[in-house]
Amino acid sequence: MSFTIRKDPKGVVVVGVDGQLIVGNRQELKQRVLDALESGEKKVLVDFSNTGYIDSSGLGVLVTLGKKLRENGGELRLAGLNPDLRTLFELTKLDTLFTITDSPEQALANF
Fold first, then answer.
1. Cα 18 to Cα 38, 57, 64, 94, distances in angstroms
2. Are 41 and 10 contacting, i.e. CB atoms less than 8 angstroms apart?
3. Where are the alpha helices (DSSP H) in the chain?
4. Structural domains in the chain?
5. How far apart are CA 92 and CA 81, in angstroms?
6. pLDDT tens per residue, the chain (111 residues)?
7. How many CB atoms are closer than 10 A to CB 86?
8. How many whole angstroms from its chain centre is CA 52?
């Protein structure tokens, strides 16, 4: 499990999640996004193209980060969810909290 962080030319912070987002690593994701927010970043995209599983604590950290970014005038978007993860977001109604796109490119195009 690892995270990659890069800044796209438009200034969007792109966080890639490789593997799973679970209780054991959710704090690392949270800290990376909060660090970006503290540095003045307002637009964050989490790329799940290489993610196979997200547990309830992973969902919880996404909700927390989304709220924190909105409170600071920013936005958290999600991209690259596989069909099972997309269904998870729909069943939990979390698809109503986030802008979710099929690919990171789509999310970045209209951020």
1. 24, 17, 20, 21
2. no
3. 26-38, 56-71, 83-91, 104-109
4. 2-109 (3.30.750.24)
5. 14
6. 789 999 999 999 999 999 999 999 999 999 999 999 999 999 999 999 999 999 999 999 999 999 999 999 999 999 999 999 999 999 999 999 999 999 999 999 989
7. 16
8. 14
